[in-house]
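It is worth pausing here to work through a concrete case rather than discussing structure prediction in the abstract. The textbook approach is simple: state the sequence, then state the predicted structure, then interpret. We follow exactly that order.
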Amino acid sequence: MARKSVSNRQKLSFRIEPSQRALKPRNPVAVAAKQRAAGPHRKSNAANRQAKKRELIRVLRQNGHGD
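Step two, the predicted structure:
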């Protein structure tokens, strides 16, 4: 006769509606970080250096010193 018991892989599980599921506890650090106002972003030193170099080349070309 065939074995009719539930095997280890086929455990019975209860289905719970999404409205009945308990919410995971919130991370208090993440909540505090999200509520904190973010400051303005700044260009890196390399970006500032490149911008100044481009500005210098543009000024030199306007004055007739460039190629």
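Step three, interpretation. The CA atoms of residues 45 and 51 lie 10 Å apart. The mean pLDDT is 77.
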